[in-house]
Amino acid sequence: MSPSKRSVPELMASADPLVMVTAYDYPGGRHAEAAGVDLILVGDSLGNVVLGYDSTAPVTLADMIHHGRAVRRGAPNTFLVVDLPFGTYHTGVHDAMRHAVRVIQETGADALKLEGSTPEVLDVVGTLTRNGIPVMGHVGLMPQTATAQGGLTVQGKDDASARRTLDGALALQDAGAFSAVLEAIPARLARLITERLTIPTIGIGAGVHCRGQVLVTHDLLGVYEGEHKKIAKRYAEVGQVSREAIAAYAAEVRGRTFPAKENSFVMKDDVLDKLY
User: Fold this and answer.
1) For residue 269, what pLDDT is reported?
2) At what angle do helices 61-74 and 93-107 cross, to 10 degrees?
3) Residue 49 in contact with residue 218, Cβ under 8 Å?
């Protein structure tokens, strides 16, 4: 571990809000590390914002490893979390452990993130953490199984859902998770969960009282220009800038103003004469 990279105990003890963003490739990792974030998440959200799927369910273990490797090369000194994708930890502890070890070995990740708090998932979390693999939990809205939750909707608004979310977060802590993502739940519920837990909570659409926040980089940069998300804020309009730049390039090519002299190479006249 690089001396500049924060350890799990350091992250858990941080008095300052933790900053986490997603990254999916080498440039994304470089930019995130240069910006000084605390954690980078290689999220299976790459299915939506990079691969063009309608959900995260089609994302494979090979996809996560491929993108995780690239991000690690771009961000060697930042704590890296990689999602275990749908189906890779739902068929038993043995399969989950085998997939988890492969991701850690092949990407250089510092931790893995798993969604849910069912007894089966909790068994996996406990097994991984007992074997030295740090785990970040995830409760509230869980995109991998959103269909079963009624779609991509806010969770924890009624008594049963709020209790399930709170109990799930507590159970993940008891199972050994070092932190928990709280996604798309009411801010008051997130505050209660944060107060009840001793591990850090990382919010996305969960209000300001979590101990950290995470955003999908494509959302905060305006790269992914789908439907505006209430849980996100755009800090730039990179998508618009990219379109304008490509359009300007196209116009210059069609007008034969690119490549210009400064973009071209020359040769001596006597060399050229010999070719005629």
Assistant:
1) 83
2) 30
3) yes
Could you write out the DSSP letters of every residue in 145-213? GGGGGTSS-----SHHHHHHHHHHHHHHHHHT-SEEEEES--HHHHHHHHHH-SSPEEEESS-TTSSEE
Residues whose CB falls within 8 Å of the CB of residue 65, separated by 6 or more in sequence, listed in order: 102, 103, 106, 107
Name the residue among 218, 54, 61, 58 with its Cα closest to residue 152.
Answer: 54
Q: Token digits for 221?
A: 């940069």
**Is 33 marked active-site?**
no
How far is Cα 108 from Cα 162, in angstroms, rounded to an integer?
Answer: 36
- The CA distance from 193 to 253, in Å, is 57
Q: What is the pLDDT of residues 236-250, one digit of tens each?
A: 999 999 999 999 999
Tokens of 276: 């005629």
Is the separation of the CB atoms in 44 and 61 below 8 Å? no
The active-site residue out of 183, 195, 237, 244 is 183
